[in-house]
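FAQ
Q: What does a multi-component entry look like?
A: The components come first, one per line:
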Amino acid sequence: MQADRAAPRQRLEQERRALPFLLPALGVLCLVSLYPLIQGVSRVFYAYRALSQQNVFVGLENFRLLFQDPTFARAFLNSLVWVATSVGGMFFLSYILATMLNSRFLRFRRIFRTLTLIPWALPGVVVSLTWRYIFLVNGPLNTVLAALGVANPPSWITDPQLALWTCIAANTWMGIPFVTIMLLAGLQSIDRQIVEAAAMDGASYLQAQWHVIMPSIKQVVLIVLTLQTIWTFNSFDIVFVLTKGGPGSASITLPLYAYQNAFMYYQAGYGAAIGVIILLVLVFAVVLYIREVLQ
Amino acid sequence: MRLSPTKRVLVNLVALVYIVVLVFPVVLMFLNAIRTEAEIIQFPVALPHVVTTENFVEIFRESSFMDNLWNSFSVSALTVCLTIIVAAPAGYAMSRFRFRGKRLFSAWLLATQAFPGIIMVLGVFMLFRTYGLLNTRLGLVIMHTSFSVPFSVWLLKGYFDGIPAALEEAAMIDGCTHLAALVRIILPLSVPGLLAVATFSFLLSWNEFFFSLVINRAERLLTLPVFLSRFLGVGGMVRWGPLSAAALLATIPALVLFMLGQRYLVSGLTGGAIK
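Then the predicted structure of the entire assembly, as C-alpha cells:
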C-alpha cells in the first residue's frame, strides 16, 4: 500500500491495463450473478395473487407467513440435521480414508486413489437414482439384509422416520471423494518426521492425530468444512430424486421447499424468502471460508 | 513409526471395504442396463443370467435420448469454451496486475459458491424471459459459465502465479502487448491448468440439474440429468432397465473425461487450499 501511495500514477497505469482483461468476467458475473441475486432477493417483497393474477407488493408479509408455517419449521430443522450429520459424517469417514490412502503400507495406492474419486465424477442425478434403486423396499440392500437374517428390513424411502436419514447416507457417500482428496493433499504436505518425533516422545496415536496432524492441516480442514456446509445446505438433487421431501414433509429441506413454492405453487416471493433465510444462515460459513482462502 | 503386521493388514482391509462401498452401488445399478426387467425385479443382487441389449435398444428407439445427449454435449462443450475465454484473461489480471478492489473481487468470486440456487434461478428466470433465453441452449450455457468462471479464475490465477513474469517481460520489450503475451507465452505454458479448468467446467455443466430443470422445459431441449429424472414420473413403476441403460450412457462421457483430466483437476483443486 505504501508503494501505491508513492506511485499513484503507476497504479493507475496498472488498472488501465488490467481492466480489459477483467471485463469479460465482470460482465458475466454482474449479468448472471449479481443482477439475478438482487432481482431474486427483491422478489421476497411480492406475492402472487391468483384472483387478480398479479404480483403485488406485500412488504415483509412473506417472512411473517414463513414463521407461522409448520412445513417451513420442519424444512429448517431437517436442513440443520441434514447439514450437521452429512458434513460430520463425510469428514469423519473421509479422514479415516485419507489416512489409509496416505499410509506407506497400503498396496495399490494409485488405483485406490482413483477409485475413491469415482462417485465425484458421476452426475448427481445418477447418484441419486442409484441410491433410490439400492434403497427400494425389495431392492438390493434389503435383499442383502434379508439374507443376513434381518426379519423385517425397513422401507428406507417411505418410512417417515427413516427418509431423511436415507438421503443423508446417500449425500455422505457422494461427498466423501472431495473431502478425502483435500484431506489427503493436506496429510501429504505434513513432514513424516514430525509425526515420528511425536511418537518417539511417547504420544499415543490419537494424541498425535489431535495435537500434531490436525493443527498442521487446520486450513484445509476449515476450507473443506465450510465449503461442504455451503454445498450441502444448498443441495437439491438427492432429496428431489430420492424422496421429493416425502413422505408428507418428513424429509423436506429448505432448497426443496423453496423450489416447490416457487415452481409448483406459484409463490415465487415465498420461495425467495426461503432462499434469503438460506443465505442468512450461510453468511457465517461464507465469511469463514473467504477468510481462510484469502489468508 | 513401525506398524505391526496386523496393522498393515488392517490398513489394506479397511481401505478395501471403503472402495467396495464407494464403487459397488454404482456397479450394481449399471449392471441393470444389461439385465432383463424380470431379472431386475426378481434378483436385485445378482449377475445377469442372460445378457440383453433390449434396454439400450428401447432407449434409442423410443425416447428422445439422442436429442438429449446432443443437448448435454453441446451445452457442456460451449460452457468449456466460454469459461476459458472469460476466465483466462481475468486470471491473468489477478496474477499480474495490482488494482483497487482486487480483494473484493476475490471475495466476490468465492462468495458466489454460497448463493442459494432458488434466488439465482428466480432472478435469472425473469432476465432470460426478457431476452428470450428461456428454453434455449444458449441460456443454459451462459448460466453454467457463470458457475464455472469463479473457480476457474481462481485456479488459473494460481497457475499463472507459478510462471515467471520475466518470460513475458522479455517478450514485451520486443514490442509484444499484454494480450499477445498471454496468448502466445502464458497460455501455451499453462496447458495443465487449462485442462483442469476444461475438466471442471465440462463436468459441472454435464452434471448440473437444478437450473437445467427449471430453465428448459421443452422436451427436445432437456439435458441428460433432467431426462433421467423424468423416468420417476408421477407414481407408477420405475422401469429400472432402460433407466440404468440411459444412466450408464450419461455417465460414460463424464467418467472418461474425469479419468483423463483428474490428475490436473486434483492438483488444481488442492493447490488453492494447500500452500
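Q: Is there any commentary attached?
A: Sometimes. For this entry: Chain B has a mean pLDDT of 88.
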